[in-house]
Amino acid sequence: MWKEIDKMKGPIYRQMMDQIMKNIENGNLAPGERLPSERKLAAEFKTNRTTVVRALDELRALGVLTSRQGSGRYVNQTEWGKFSVPRINWRELFSQRYEQVDDWYEERIKEAKKQPDFLDLFSSEMPNKLLPDVQFPAHTMAEMITEEQKMTDLGYLPLVEKIEGYLSDEFQFDFSRTQLLVTVGGQQAIFLILQTLLSNGDAVAVESPSFFYRLALFRATGTRLFGIPMDDEGIDLAILEKSIQKNKIKAVLVNPNFQNPTGKVMSQKRRNDLVVLCRKYQVPIVEDDVFSDLSFQEVENSPVSIHSLDPENVLYVGSLSRLLGKTTKIGWIIGPQTLIFKLAKAQQMMEFSMSIFTQIAATAVFEESYDAKLALVRNQLQEKSLLLQKWAQKQNFFNVWPIKGGYYAWVTWEGKKMTAEIASEAVAKGLGVAPSWLFGRETNGIRINFSRLDQDRMIVFAERMEELAGWLQA
What gap in Å lies between CA 408 and CA 433, rounded to an integer? Predict the structure, then answer.
């Protein structure tokens, strides 16, 4: 794994850093794994211990390594608040900014999916057979040219009208069409907001654990993430306030409905208090709300959106992508008209605008039968969630957090934390789950996509989870 340092190829400590980084990137060193001692590394590199210490300290400062007193150096499993590139190297710049975090684990999942008996509960999408059956219209070229005349800076006008009507009817949103911008999915909407409103190195607070930690877009925009723990009601506001003061937080990004990965729903009181806190410090809120359509309860019983509480200081991000799969990426941003116009101009400058074809297809989603099709999806998801909850009641090791909507479940247990070794062993045994450390939190938890379960797969799932429990209790 380690090669002797060639003193003719540049600074010795830099070469050591290179070797350690490469071994992390190719999976030879896994997140959470302990490095050899300073003395042993000095022997491997055939150099002095002082230089080894300098290389390790540099990597620690960059967030690549962590240290534990009396225990040694470890590969960092989380990087909250860190964004840095160790040197100007195009390959590393690309790797640091655009590659997925912990992609070695995802690569193992991809390989495991080739096995016919692999149980994939890791994927972030619902299975195709569960998606609504939407019929897309056929248009001639002449018709497409005519429809192109209806394109505006904010999007295809018929689509803007459909989204406005849908949000108004279903969720009692009150806004004008000039306050809505159509985007290529929810993630692109967030990227556009970060790229437009923040500067490189600015800090953003997010819930912890959070799927945002998995997104390369934060590295791409140079944004530093600070994870704020949650309690039963949502993001912890006392800790958030301290982080705003200490880390100069420039925005708060929350996923209040069926939070990914925990499935939590932020309480109404917590939403009200979050708005008050952010007003106090003049920190804008970005409300990522892509799962509202998949609630298992009636809209009137659901908490009011954070945007509705403070439309002047909250940007609302919605999406159809969860329901339409990867083929039709549609999202939107709702906010103050002046800001929406600025985001629209930025979107044009970045050439992020969608083609007329995609927007016409998305408009067809809001046909008269869409509500009925969506209700069918919700019912199927609720039935699958009940299968998982019944399993949880029959065993006494794992705990499944309450499932109120969406298609993710958060499973926890008492005792040993989820490690890369245990997760890899689960994959080897044919069980694909998303471990907590993928979401920036070193704890004993896993995310499960229960939309991929049925009666038969539940039997397999129960057997393999029992094996996993054995590993966790060993």
Answer: 11
Element (H, E) at 55: helix 49-61
Coil vs helix vs strand at 268: helix
pTM of the model: 0.78
Angstrom distance (rounded) from CA 206 to CA 394: 34
CA–CA separation, 380 and 426 (whole Å): 27
Reduced DSSP (H G I as helix, E B as strand, rest coil) percent helix, strand, coil of the chain, to 5: 50, 15, 35
Residue 439, pLDDT > 80, answer yes
Distance between CA atoms of 259 and 375, rounded to whole angstroms? 20
End-to-end C-alpha distance for the chain, whole angstroms: 29
Torsion of CA 176, 181, 182, 183, to 10 degrees: -160
CA distance 344 to 183: 9
Mean pLDDT of 412-434: 89
201 vs 61, 79, 278, CA distance in Å? 15, 14, 20
Confidence at 368, pLDDT banded by 50, 70, 90: low
Helix (H, G, I), strand (E, B) or coil at 13: helix
Q: CB within 8 A of 196, min separation 6: which ones? A: 342, 343, 346
At residue 102, the pLDDT reads 46
Task: Give the burial string for 210-236 (b: 16+ CB within 10 Å, else e).
Answer: bbbbbbbbbbebbbbbbbbebeebbbb
Tell me the pLDDT tens digit for each residue of 122-135.
Answer: 998 888 888 777 66
